[in-house]
Write a structure and sequence with these properties.
By secondary structure, the chain is mostly beta strands. The protein is built from three helices and 16 strands. The two termini are 17 Å apart.
Amino acid sequence: TIKSSLWNCFVENRLDVNLGMALSDVYAWTVDFYGLQKGDNFKVIYEEVFVDNVLIGIGRIQASVFQSNGKEFYAYNFEQEGKAEYFDENGQSLQRSFLKAPLKFSRISSRFSKSRMHPILRISRPHFGVDYSAPRGTPVVALGDGQVNKAGFHGGYGRFISIRHNSVYTTTYAHLSGYAKGIKSGFHVQQGQVIGYVGSSGLSTGPHLDFRVYRNGSPTDPLKLESPPSKPVDPKDLARFKQLVTRMNLELGK
């Protein structure tokens, strides 16, 4: 049971904090880990990994239930066609998909790099995003559902938008020429919704979109982002899935 924060809950119960990270991945699209309250609670069945009888870490979460804001969120690890995914008690995927790209672009002018020569500053520094070259005014859309963290001028990024999709993923869109109607901090957007338009504001040599993805606060290559599946359990596997749910619910005390 959470008394102050999820982190403190793990420390107080001497749980591996990596289990907390794993839980946040499982529930990334269903539980708002930024909005947890005192009294929220969870149960989790997970694997522990040993080498020569020495605990070295945690393995896969098998099943869990997270109670937050008066609602219960169940998760079950189920394998079909050789791939394990997480589903709710009705066999619906807990994941949501991302678009492959946030705009229609002509070419990629710069890729994710830990060291790139800046075209204006002429110094080598990391470029933790992908630059999509496109005509000025090309619509830019949200990669997925989420809430706008910031929409405004942001230094060298020029006109800038940051969207928090869940407790794990945040995306940013820079060098815009303008914003779509209604886009401001706190605004909820849907996947594919137009949020702005390609421009060259800030430190930029021409119209393009500087697009970035952050996972748990760390930059990740957008071109290597695996869009999670969102398909339900296959009808041919439902009977086997229901048997798993029944067995896990007994262990979870449901």
